[in-house]
Design goal:
Strand 4, helix 16 and strand 5 form a beta-alpha-beta unit. A five-stranded mixed sheet has the order 2-3-1-4-5, with helices on both faces. The longest helix is centred in the middle third of the chain and has 37 residues. The chain contains 16 helices and five strands.
Amino acid sequence: MASGGRDFDEVASLRRTGRHRRGVVAKLAASTSDWYHAPHDFDWIINHRSTRPLTGIIRVVFGTAVLMYALTSILMLSSDLGPSGTFEVGWVVFVLFTQALVAARCVLGPIPGKKFFIGFLAFGDILTTSVLVLYEPIASLIGTVLFAVTGAFCTYFLSPRLLVAHLVWTATFIIGFGIRVLVSVLDGDVGYIDAPSVVTATVVLLLATVGVPVFAQVAWTTLSNDAKRSVLDPLTGVFNRRGIDSELLDLWRHARKEGKSMAFVVVDIDKFKAVNDNFGHSRGDEVIIRVADRLRRLVRQEGGALARTGGEEFLVALVGDARRMVDLGLEMVQALCDQRDDIPVTVSVGMALLREDSALWDVGTSVVGRAVRTADTAMYRSKQSGGNRLIVDEI
């Protein structure tokens, strides 16, 4: 988010453009276009849009889904409607072997990244289709229900554009397999089903594998965007006070498990009231955004968390080597003070350092609140000393 008040500006924008006066079709087209072109934040989906209990079982869910693919392939190898030639059977066995490797990666590997999800989509669509074309027509049509599995993952983890690509692929082959069965029925090769039943089955499969994912993603995206706005600062796009709470606890658990130090850093812009008084609140917002962007770049390199906790105050949490984190605190002071800026500012920085050998780790998560208060006190001492400096307190 680049500026404040975006949510309210959207309402005014609708009035200016006259979208609220359009017909139903025009509104639907505009909403669909907005959905399709919406930016996709994969990191948010993995780290925040999925609830904490869900992220721990994503690997198992993916592995189980792949094994379901494998199970259907194994069953069809012994079916009269399955592959019959040597090449066909060999290809299905190869796909089974690939599925086993992917399932092992899902279960034993780390939480999948974006490339893995995209690869899983391609894997699920292309290899599944390559196996289905080897089946008898009616088995191919029934087997297209497997596309619902990859469609579900697209719905929750991938962008609308990738979902649309998947749905186009899915619809093409469902219709193609439906026509294939219909031709067989009309030619008299299949006598246990009639043409209306084939058409009905094709329509139902299209609805289940194409229609449902679209409605599900639109609803899920709307709900998750509401959740995202509740934990993010609308001006800077970093966490707000509510959003940083769970991040602090996650980082504390990670640091304790890995035996690393943890730093809590409070950053406050010096003499910010003078900026608003001399340049106006809109320019003051620009200064806050600039500070947030620079802090974000520094924190991203270290894998920490960043929040705007007050008007011109930020909270940073870091995990790692104690000396490196102190150096990073000094870098914050230097990076945020640049005389080349159109409105140059300095910052007061206070750090509470919880070393890996501190006895306070045994206190439990309550030490997090104590550390934040200690960092806040250190920041005020920095400000009282003239600002533009870092003060570190060990706890």
